[in-house]
Amino acid sequence: MRLPFRMKSRGHPQSTGSLTRRMIGISTIWIVILLSAGGFGLDRVLSSAITRNFDSQLDYVLSALIASAEIGPDGEVFLNRAPADQRFLEPYSGLYYQISGDQSLSAEQRELQDLPSRSLWDRRLRIGGAHSDTDVHIYDSPEFDPEMLRVLERDVQIPGSKVRWRFQVAQSREGLDEQIAVLRRTLVRSFAVLGLGLIVLGSLQAFYGLWPLRRVRKAIADIKSGEKSRIEVRLPSEIAPLAEELNDLLAHVEVQAEEARRHAGNLAHALKTPLTVITNEATAHSPDLAPTVIREAATMRRQVDHHLARARAIGRRATAQSRAEVWPSLEAVERAVDRLYEHVTIDLAGVKTAAARVERQDLDEMLGNLIENAAKYGGGRVFVTVKETDDCVEIEIEDDGAGIPEGERGTIFERGARLDTEKPGTGLGLAIVRDVAQIYGGSVALEESEDLGGLLVRLKLPVAVNHGT
Questions:
Q1: Number of domains present in the structure of the chain
Q2: End of a domain among 149, 180, 211?
Q3: Which residue, 206, 265, 431, 441, has fewest beta-carbon neighbours within 10 Å?
Q4: 3-class SS at 170?
Q5: What's the CATH number where 333 sits?
Q6: Nearest to 462 by CA among 351, 397, 388, 365
Q7: E strands in 240-363
């Protein structure tokens, strides 16, 4: 039977694309932007240089015209020496000059007075308004369309004349535009080749730079297939810490898996005997079957509670960021124990800012077991002191009870061992505290209280890292 729709796979995280393509794409965009900006700037500089050189040649011709201009007897202007460039004599050659006088005269009078080059033939350069200075003015003019002109003009008062004469030199921009076009083609081709080379170089750099990551991927695939147990390839210094962290994570997972297998085996072994007793009693139709089931079920429950507590602590230990404030946990436990044992006085003292590298739930469970034992088996007074060193947080719980003989202090941590069999309890409190403390790298020790005369329990836990520094 065909399904009406296809389920999406949830086993793998969605990919965000290729890192190699991303690096190549970013480098390509930057190369294009930088080369475009650089090419544009270089084009502006070189085009301006070519244009200035073009204008300087026209300015030289304009200065020569002004230097050779004189006024005739009838007020007309003439040149005492002809320009050396023969293009001024060829009609429509693309190089022109024109000397214009008083614009208030009639066209016939201006024609007799003005002096155009022969190359203008039947055309004349356009004359704009008068300039108030004697500087050279440069502009482009489309007056001989489709031929674009580059015009230089200057107003000069020739000796012997009261008229301000307009000297104009014009040349077709065709040669100038052709030089600029050649320049731009060269720049475009050169920068295109340079950009392509840089993109290829960036691609090679991306492939080569990311190659160690492919080696890490291959090593992880080998670990997954069972060929290897660790990442053993040599890697660059930037990636080597990643491989080390992965190896540490693998070692941590192996330790947790081994602990889980060991706990499962211990739990199975612990439950095997009670189950055998119950089975035998049931098979023999024993009249004491009900009490036997209740007794053995309580034993199995103690074992299950013990191993569950260890399993929870091991699972929460996986993070190195665990942090629990000791004083709030002590106050919470004190309030709970006060309600259970109203005749007991609990005094707290010591460092109120101490923090241990444990989960708050596990800290509450350890302190709850220790303080409740002190209240249950003591004479009515419990004294808790918090100390802190560079390496650990030390919590001392003292009571005024009968204490424990030194020879029996080692056996009291065994599962099911109890301080007083006449009082209710499972006998797992100290065993759970010891196991959870050891999981976090701490310890529990039993001593004699010098102040109260009873038992002193010294709980040591690793100090938490202060994230505010």
A1: 2
A2: 180
A3: 265
A4: strand
A5: 3.30.565.10
A6: 388
A7: 324-325, 345-350, 355-356
Tens digits of residue pLDDT in 262-310 = 767 666 766 777 788 788 878 887 787 788 788 778 777 766 766 666 6
State the Cα–Cα distance between residues 340 and 37, nearest whole angstrom: 80
Peptide linkage before 146 cis (omega within 30 of 0):
yes
Q: For residues 128-155, b (16+ Cβ closer than 10 Å) or e, as one string?
A: eeeeeeeebeeeebeebeeeebbbbbbb
Torsion of CA 301, 332, 356, 441, to 10 degrees: -20
- Residue 35: pLDDT above 90? yes
- Supply the DSSP string of 75-111, one letter for each residue: S-EEESS--S-GGGGSTT-SEEEEEE--TTS-HHHHH
Give mean pLDDT, residues 250-266. Answer: 74
Domain of 375 in residue numbering reads as 321-462
Question: Considering the domain boundaries, does residue 258 fall inside one?
Answer: no
Q: Is the CB of residue 431 less than 8 Å from the CB of residue 289?
A: no
Among the three residues 180, 201, 236, which one is the final residue of a domain in this structure?
180
The residue ranges of DSSP E strands in 64-222, in sequence order, are: 69-71, 77-79, 95-100, 115-116, 137-144, 147-157, 164-172
Give the tens place of pLDDT for each residue, 117-128: 999 988 889 888
pTM for this predicted structure: 0.51
- Please state, in angstroms and rounded to a whole number, the distance separating the CA atoms of residues 222 and 250: 13
State the pLDDT at residue 173: 93
CA-CA distance, 418 to 441, in Å (whole number)?
25
